[in-house]
Amino acid sequence: MCGVFGLVAHEPVNQLLYDGLQMLQHRGQDAAGIVTAEGNRFHMHKGKGMVREVFRTRNMRDLIGNAGIAHVRYPTAGNAKSSAEAQPFYVSSPFGIVLAHNGNLTNTAELYDTVYREYLRHVNTQSDSEVLLNVFAHELRHTVSRSSTPFHLSIDHIFDAVAQVHKRVRGAYAVVALIAGYGMLAFRDPNGIRPLTLGKAEQNGQTAYAVASENVVFNSLSFDLVRDIAPGEAVFITFDGQLHSRHCAETARLMPCLFEYVYFARPDAVIDGVSVYQARANMGIALADTVKHRINPDEIDVVMPIPDTSRPVAMELAHHLGKPYREGLIKNRYIGRTFIMPGQATRKKSVRQKLNPIPSEFQNKNVLLVDDSIVRGTTSREIVEMVRASGANKIFFASAAPEVRYPNVYGIDMPTRAELIANGRSADEIAREISADACVFQNLDDLERVVRDLNPAIEGFDNSCFSGCYLTGDIDDRYLLALANSR
Ligand code: AMP
């Protein structure tokens, strides 16, 4: 999972790109990069770390130009990546292209081979995004060289090349790219697994366009959300500000990733027409019914979120159970996400650093704790222990997401099956594992229903980490085994 952002404006974009990346920081804290276009030249700066660590004033000064793209990279546990794998990536031929990508390709190994052996192109990192860039570059070159005007790049060449990319590449990809001297390209995979939105603003009587993983960027930069980029669609904005778009996939369907709504996206984002905040609130309403079936509501004294993501869920859950909503776990907002720490020992310590209990909120109370999801169960076990030590009587644990039982191959970092606490365990067994008195998980049907209620045009979801059904049809046990072995 990563964040991408791109701008074609009528004024320098370096500060805007930096500010936009800050708004996407939650999508990746591992590395950040910006490329700007000044006429035919690209200026690039990228490196490991948070946005505020990667960019110094001197770097910002060098990022000249009125168009640019930017990226924040998601940390992948146990698979530390070098700064060479920070994005965007660059190729010099054809024309000069830079590209940044959110998502994960599922046929990278096969593509890598084709790129190397057939296209005679070199990929210098382990990144599927560099492979994707080389596939696109090859297709663009091929399309242009076959045309009647082989030295001239047209909008149709670009869209034809994207259409070829859709035929060759499988997996999830939301992409922004710049073609030197021409403009900015954005496209989304035919399932629309990862989000991508289009925004615009009036600048000095002209229209500036922006593309971003989440529309939260637009509000902060005084851009307006135009719409989501459709699955399989490509948008090209010339450097003089003309917007073109085309549906480039033979078949496309809107199947966004459910986990974006559960955990990943900011609550103030609207993804594929669905307010993430409202979706989470609705998850709380649906969860209330499931809780009523599993726990005697008379036994619950208080409902409490595990901050921050689950707050809207817990609020509605409390309301629909008719129970008080209280906050007894206080988050230290200066500690990084615990998921990114390698090894369970470090992780255990960081949960304690991150959350601190208010004992008076727990003493002699039966508490229903609410989290967005339980993955390994390390966090929840630690929290239950902490809440118990703070004097709670009974501790119930509710998850806004169903049991996570399968790895995610489309860009969300999930551990291997063996590490998932819900793998091969019932809710009661999970409760025992985390020392809770009961555990309640959202039903997958309920989760899908409450999100789709907010936009009936959504045809379905990538729900693979809950269901084991992988939309791209190319994931089997062998693939998952190889993935597990590579970790
Ligand atoms: P754990 O069960 O200890 O693996 O941690 C679960 C918690 O980590 C959830 O409550 C989320 O807040 C957070 N989380 C879930 N999935 C991810 C992910 N893919 N990347 C980062 N954090 C995650």
TrEMBL record:
CDD domains: GPATase_N (cd00715), PRTases_typeI (cd06223). Its cofactor is Mg(2+). It comes from Conchiformibius kuhniae. Binds 1 Mg(2+) ion per subunit. Catalyzes the formation of phosphoribosylamine from phosphoribosylpyrophosphate (PRPP) and glutamine. This is Amidophosphoribosyltransferase. One of its GO terms (biological process) is 'de novo' IMP biosynthetic process. The active site is at C2 (nucleophile). NCBIfam families: purF. Pathway: Purine metabolism; IMP biosynthesis via de novo pathway; N(1)-(5-phospho-D-ribosyl)glycinamide from 5-phospho-alpha-D-ribose 1-diphosphate: step 1/2. One of its GO terms (molecular function) is magnesium ion binding. Residues 2-240 form the Glutamine amidotransferase type-2 domain. Its EC number is 2.4.2.14. Pfam families: GATase_6 (PF13522), Pribosyltran (PF00156). Mg(2+) binds at T309, D371, D372. Gene3D superfamilies: 3.40.50.2020, Glutamine Phosphoribosylpyrophosphate, subunit 1, domain 1. In the C-terminal section; belongs to the purine/pyrimidine phosphoribosyltransferase family. It catalyses: 5-phospho-beta-D-ribosylamine + L-glutamate + diphosphate = 5-phospho-alpha-D-ribose 1-diphosphate + L-glutamine + H2O. Keywords: Glutamine amidotransferase, Glycosyltransferase, Magnesium, Metal-binding, Purine biosynthesis, Transferase.
